[in-house]
Design goal:
Blueprint (H helix, E strand, L loop, with lengths): L18 H21 L7 E7 L8 E6 L38 H21 L10 H28 L1 H10 L24 H22 L5 H39 L12 H17 L7 H9 L20 E8 L2 E8 L4 H26 L34 H11 L3 H9 L31 E2 L2
Antiparallel strand pairs: 1-2, 1-5, 3-4
Helix pairs in contact: 1-3, 2-3, 3-4, 3-6, 5-6, 5-7, 5-9, 6-9
């Protein structure tokens, strides 16, 4: 399913065959371009070496080349349709998937699409000024690649709203451009997407932890009985993988440089030497991981149960699960706080679906800890990085309102506040990290607080001129 770039809106959904829909999206397009101009990347560029989707197949799906950012061709791309696909879970398991929205599920499906759609432009807004402090042209290009693909993911959700939800869908599509990250009057819908991303350590943590949440949310929506949503999310996951690569390898490089400076100066106090101390890296992990856990919602959720039973949103890799895919007789254990202690409750597996998805995410996040600790081990350091307890610093779910240490101990508010600065980034920590954020725009050069990448992009050398600046 190749993508036609001769169209005003590149697509592989035959927009030309639906003139009403085409006109509606073409009327939304100027608003999107205005949003990109005002809320997208703030750093002016001549062009950027970007990846552009040209096909939705598994091989040769993208083209690389220098593109002027304002001329990037955002469009609507869905994975190929499987005409034999059947609903894999819930009470309608085994029935053909839906090509149109069933009336009884219209409101729920629209809400799921709007929430997902709201996260896409939010991250662009959060990251808009990072180009001004990029540690290298390689990193600057990766930032812009993430940004343009988040913009395209917004297009993917807007297409669904316009194509399948009528007037209310068009209204919601407009609202996606009216909310802004951190705006006091009209903020983004989810808390993590109203947090600042003021520095590149935060950006690497965001693309590791928060974009990884996106992976699992998209993965569960990919299972949906609403086939256009499933096909949309399947293709988005292909692009999302690069965003997590940026985060994973970015933290790799920060940890490696921290280890190098620690060894060179025989001290973990490397702030004065232009590095980010390991304690600060751990605090950033604690913060971004805990904020991202909140995105999964409450551990016990009737909404999640209803979505599953109806076939709207499945589990991660649903068809690989070895059960009946209805869960009406199954149970699960979730952590709760009771009588001043953390314990567990047995609940219906249907009510624990958010917990199930979050558990998959937690296991995946552990892979980063293993990577980063191998770097420390190879550098001869005894210190190790770790994920805090899932109850630490939580604002949503069973642990909201409770004071849980990174080790998983339940303590009083005074005890927690007394140790807060040892667990979460302080203003002094943030100020130090910001002080290191000086731009490096010379090809092949890199900031002193991060190690160079191991390889370039698309087989290009590291000193390739990935971004041309005015």
């Amino acid at each position: 399913m190749s993508i036609d770039y001769s169209e005003k809106i590149p697509n592989n959904v035959d927009l030309a065959g639906d003139r009403k829909l085409q006109r509606a999206l073409e009327s939304w397009q100027p608003n999107f371009l205005n949003w990109w101009k005002t809320m997208g990347p703030a750093l002016p560029t001549e062009d950027v070496y970007l990846r552009t989707a040209v096909d939705v197949g598994r091989e040769g799906w993208a083209h690389f080349g220098h593109v002027a950012m304002e001329e990037y061709r955002w469009g609507v791309f869905l994975a190929e349709r499987n005409h034999d696909r059947r609903i894999a879970f819930g009470e309608r398991r085994g029935e053909p998937v839906w090509q149109q929205v069933p009336g009884e599920y219209r409101a729920d499906l629209q809400r799921l699409i709007v929430i997902q759609g709201d996260t896409e432009p939010a991250s662009v807004e959060q990251q808009r000024r990072l180009g001004e402090t990029a540690p290298s042209l390689y990193d600057l290009r990766n930032l812009f690649q993430v940004n343009v693909e988040e913009g395209r993911h917004l297009w993917a959700m807007v297409y669904l709203l316009h194509a399948y939800f009528g007037r209310t869908g068009r209204t919601e599509a407009e609202a996606l451009l009216q909310r802004n990250s951190g705006d006091l009057d009209s903020p983004r819908m989810l808390g993590a997407f109203n947090e600042e991303t003021p520095d590149w350590l935060s950006f690497f943590m965001f693309t590791y932890f928060t974009d990884r949440d996106g992976k699992y949310q998209l993965g569960s929506l990919k299972e949906s009985a609403f086939d256009p949503l499933s096909r949309t999310c399947e293709f988005m996951l292909k692009e999302e993988a690069h965003h997590m690569f940026v985060g994973t390898t970015g933290v790799d490089r920060v940890v490696a440089r921290t280890a190098e400076l620690t060894r060179e100066h025989d001290s973990e106090d490397i702030a004065a030497h232009g590095g980010i101390p390991l304690d600060v890296i751990q605090k950033y992990i604690n913060f971004h991981y805990s904020v991202s856990l909140d995105l999964f919602g409450s551990e016990r959720s009737t909404n999640a149960a209803n979505y599953f039973t109806a076939g709207l949103k499945g589990r991660w890799q649903e068809e690989r699960r070895d059960d009946d895919h209805t869960l009406t007789e199954d149970a699960a254990e979730v952590a709760v706080v009771r009588d001043g202690a953390i314990t567990t409750d047995e609940v219906s597996a249907l009510l624990a679906l958010n917990h199930d998805l979050r558990s998959e995410y937690v296991k995946d996040c552990q892979s980063g800890m293993k990577r980063w600790n191998r770097i420390l081990e190879r550098a001869g350091m005894d210190r190790r990085l770790s994920l805090p307890h899932v109850g630490f610093n939580r604002q949503v779910g069973e642990f909201a309102g409770h004071n849980v240490t990174p080790a998983g101990d339940l303590v009083g508010a005074d005890a927690w506040n007394a140790k807060r600065d040892a667990w979460l980034p302080t203003e002094a920590d943030k100020a130090h990290v910001r002080s290191l954020m000086r731009p490096v725009y010379e090809p092949g050069k890199i900031a002193s607080w991060v190690s160079p990448p191991n390889t370039g992009i698309n087989n290009k050398p590291i000193d390739y001129e990935y971004v041309h600046l005015p």
